[in-house]
Amino acid sequence: MPSSRPQTPAGRPAARSKRGSAHLRLRLGFMVIAMVLSVFGARLVQLQGIDPNSYAAMAAAEGLVKVTLPAERGDILDRNGEPLADSVDGLMVVADPYMTADEAPVLAKFLANRLDVDYFRTLRLLREKGSRFEYVARRVPSTIATDVVTAAKAAGFEGIATRPDPIRDYPAGDVAANLIGFMGTDEALGGLERTFDTQLSGTDGSARYEIGGGNRLPLGESTITRAVDGEDLRTTIDQDLQWFTQRVLRQTVEDSRGDSGFAVVMDTRTGELLALADHPTFDANHPLASPEEDLGSRAMSDVYEPGSVQKVLTLSGLIDAGKVTARTRLKVPGSLARQDRVIGDWFPHDLIRLTLAGVVAKSSNIGTVLAADKFAEGELRSYLSAFGLGQTTDIGVRGETPGILPDPSIWTPQAQDRIAFGQSLSVNAVQMTAAVNTLANGGVRVSPSLVRGTATTDDGRRVGTDTTTTRRVVSARAARQTTLMMERVLDPEEGVAPGANVPGYRVAGKTGTAQRVGEECGCYDGSFTVSFAGFAPADDPRFTIYVVVQNPRNGGGGGSVTGPAFAKVMGYALRRYAVPPTGTEPSRLPVEW
Amino acid sequence: MSSPAVQIRSRVPRLAGSAVERARLTVVPRRRVQAARVPFVTLVSLILLGGVIGLLLFNTSMQQAAFAATALESQAGSLSAREQTLRMELDVLRDPQRVAERAQAMGMVPAVSSPFIRLSDGKVLGDTTVSTPADNLRIRPKAPSLPASLNPPPLVVDAPADPAASGESGAEKRRGNGRNR
User: Fold this and answer.
1) Does residue A169 belong to the interface with chain B, where contact is any CB pair within 8 Å?
2) B87 contacts in A (CB within 8 Å)?
3) Which residues 121-150 of A have a C-beta within 8 angstroms of B?
4) Which of A407, A371, A412 has its CA nearest to residue A389?
5) Which of B110, B96, B108, B138 is nearest to A279 (CA)?
6) Which of A49, A182, A445, B96 could form an S-S bond across to A438 if both were Cys, CB 3.0 to 4.6 Å?
């Protein structure tokens, strides 16, 4: 090499003159390279030194998807597992007005035809200025929503999309609606839905993963937190029996032109509520179509005076205390002047000679007051308290009233007279059913329950069949004697409620027609609460049923209005649960002497 | 320092000279072993090629699996939506109200009695009354009565003698009614 060098300048003098000196070219070259490199360097400093995170985030966000995995809300089931409320996958249809405004009329017509939405409202939404997100329809079953959006895309419309939006469905409409309550757009608004919301709602999960071209990248980032679905709530309600009870109740209230009514069906041995019906009620799928006062459970929240049904509690206490028997003879005058007022009977009579059974069968106030005089001081109150009056039943229904059992300090002899036949104290329907059920269950009170197993309410109480308590209130002998007396109430000749008979079965029951405290004046306003409580078969009770109608305007009483309703529901329950007649002779207790 | 080696050499008999000559250590000439290059290069190339192709196939199959997963996921989603819709329809079909309405439309009435036969002695227990249509339950709410404003007393108009004038006023009346509704 060195030997060839001297030849070069001599060999190509012309080339040198064209390209300039090598040094100059090298310098220029280096300068260009240095300039380019310094641009690169500056960019590097900008990327890595000044603002590294935003670029990293942008890179990561490209194709990274974050989705919420909605937890499925637990169902509310009846005792056989049939859903009273269930959750269905749904979608919401949303629009981007920026993209839909141009074709709004056509698209609105398309959506109104397919989605059951209002054309004019939709048209306004699709043209909303300055908005990029409007709800077209919410809680649409996902098959329908997907079909509609696919069809819209196929027809060339843009700016319509779907998002997950679970639907709460009440398949049986108004069946047990007063108990179950209903859901608002996003939260539980009443009834069991709200009381047990924590258990039912579950926890939403989430997922983060990278996608490319709509597919998940196999080795990309992927984090999944699974959703924890809500737990089902199983009630003791029997859907079919509840439906039947509601229809009988509605017919009864409508035909008697009453204000409202409720009916309770209880399993005698376990205290489970098989039906708890209210009228007026509402359709849980469309709660806003009904007045607000109909959305709760009147059977739990109405306080009213029980009237003559109460007499069986008073008299069973008397028998238990050993003061009387079913055959105790009483001389019942036509009216009874007591300390502050005159007590009368619902039917005019002169002095009649009734046995205690006759007092029950004919529902004599005077006879009951005369018998109750035998109570020691405070005895009646302690019996009624043991029957559960004046205390909430805690079955898990919102807005339950404890009723009013007067305090010992205001328990005067006059008050005791009225309380003995069911005025001057107030109850709720489930309380009263549980009290009468005590007699059906041989004198042992079983606490009522609406939830199978256990569940925790929103104020932290545990309720349900697992927390059932029992306590003896009156002796088995007292309960049996009272039952025999109650059978006489349905006697076609001697009793006041032959219409409550279930043919073929022995039935024990008691009517009630109580003066009612009006809402406006806060006094007895001349309206009545009529009721019938009873159980069957009388010698081996399986069901206790209580039917109440508020303010019937057809002049009927407990025997004529609620008695037949009781008979229908009781007959249905006995058939449904295949309870055979016991085939024994009915009670023949004498009513007069 | 006139070393023992010299003494030994001097003492070594001459006849051993050739053996000593033979025993002198010399450097073994390096044997240039020409390892065959071709198999090694082939092996490495094959491993490399295999690795690359394997990776490529593996990646492709994973992509295929991702496509399949996406398709299956969307299929599962639509099937579960379909299942839920069907279940919702089923719930509607077995709504007690609907069943009762269908039954009544077919002329069925609720049972008022259900007698039992005791197998031991063949005795019939309970009531054996047969249901009649009078036992029917009213399963729909009573139609509400119209409020007075929507249920006005019939309007009686004296027909005028002139038929042309009557036709005109009649048309006017109908329009008026339409507005009121």
Assistant:
1) yes
2) 86, 88
3) 141-144, 146
4) A407
5) B138
6) A445
Pairing outcome for strands A76-77 and A233-234: parallel
d(CA A438, CA A107): 65
Candidates A244, A504, A580; nearest CB to B113: A504
- Residues B82, A143: C-beta atoms closer than 8 Å: yes
Tell me if A486 sits within 8 A of A511, measured CB to CB. no
pLDDT score recorded for residue A519:
72
Instruction: Record the tokens describing residue A281, joined without a space.
Output: 């009620």
A146 contact residues in B (CB cutoff 8 A): 78, 81
C-alpha span between B169 and B165 (Å, rounded): 6
Tokens 């739990």: give the residue: A300
Q: Are A226 and A262 in contact (CB under 8 A)?
A: no
C-alpha to C-alpha distances, A18 to A8, A10, A12, A21, nearest whole angstrom: 15, 15, 11, 9
**Whether A362 contacts A347, CB under 8 Å:** yes
CB neighbours of A106 closer than 8 A, spacing ≥ 6? A157
Strand partners, A445: A471
Sort residue A285 into left (φ over 0), alpha (ψ -120 to 50) or beta. alpha
The pLDDT tens digits of the residues spanning B31-54 come to 877 778 888 999 999 999 999 999
Q: In terms of residues, how long is chain A?
A: 593
Per-residue pLDDT in tens (0 to 9) along chain A, 593 residues? 444 444 444 445 444 556 778 899 999 999 999 999 999 999 888 888 887 788 778 877 777 878 888 888 899 999 999 899 988 888 888 888 888 888 888 888 988 888 888 899 989 988 888 888 888 888 888 888 888 888 988 988 888 888 887 888 888 888 999 999 888 777 888 889 999 999 998 888 888 888 777 777 777 778 888 889 899 999 999 999 999 999 999 999 999 999 999 999 999 999 999 999 998 899 988 888 888 888 888 888 888 999 999 999 999 999 999 998 888 888 888 888 887 788 888 888 888 899 999 999 988 999 999 999 888 888 899 999 999 999 999 898 888 889 899 998 888 888 888 899 888 899 999 999 999 999 999 999 999 999 999 999 988 889 999 999 999 999 999 999 999 999 999 888 888 888 898 988 999 999 998 888 877 777 788 888 999 999 989 999 999 999 999 999 888 888 889 999 999 999 999 999 999 888 888 888 888 88
B125 contacts in chain A (CB < 8 Å) = 504, 580-581, 583
| ipTM of the prediction | 0.77
B96 vs A171: CB contact, 8 Å cut-off? no
What residues contact A537, with CB distance under 8 A and at least 6 apart?
A505, A506, A507, A574, A579, A581, A582
User: Whole-angstrom distance between the N-terminal and C-terminal Cα of chain B?
Assistant: 148
Interface contact B116, partner A, CB < 8 A: yes
Chain B residue with the nearest C-alpha to that of A216: B66
CB spacing of B138 vs A581 below 8 angstroms: no
- For residue A35, give the H/E element and its range: helix A22-44
Q: Does B21 touch chain A (CB under 8 A)?
A: no
How is residue A215 written in tokens? 């597919």
Whether the CB-CB separation of A110 and A155 falls below 8 Å is answered with yes
